[in-house]
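Work Package 3 (structural annotation) set out to generate three-dimensional models for the target panel prioritized at the project kickoff. During this period the team completed the workflow that converts sequence records into discrete structure tokens, so that structures can be stored uniformly alongside our sequence database. As a representative example, we reproduce one entry of 114 residues exactly as it appears in the project archive.
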Amino acid sequence: QVQLVESGGGLVQAGGSLRLSCAASGSIFSIGVMGWYRQAPGNQRELVASISRGGSINYADSVKGRFIISRDYAKDTVYLQMNSLKPEDTAVYYCYTIVDREYWGQGTQVTVSS
């Protein structure tokens, strides 16, 4: 079993920044990709950013140039630095990873006011 604990969500004005963190613990002998999805009310969950075990990074087009994903391999932690936030970034953000299967965090609310 793998546990993911997220932190760093909150309320911010448009143009502001937030940093999300997600720490993995448990049976993480061969943790693979780590990343973030988000889900806004009435929308499907969508990929925001991911970083592979080897360091390959993917971003959703909507966040390219504004968000930065990084990973501390020693701490099994993934971060999402979110800059120039927009009201449309408002959503619940979920951390995920793949070990023997997918694992998900509990979600953290990010609200961007206009």
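The chain has no helices and eleven strands.
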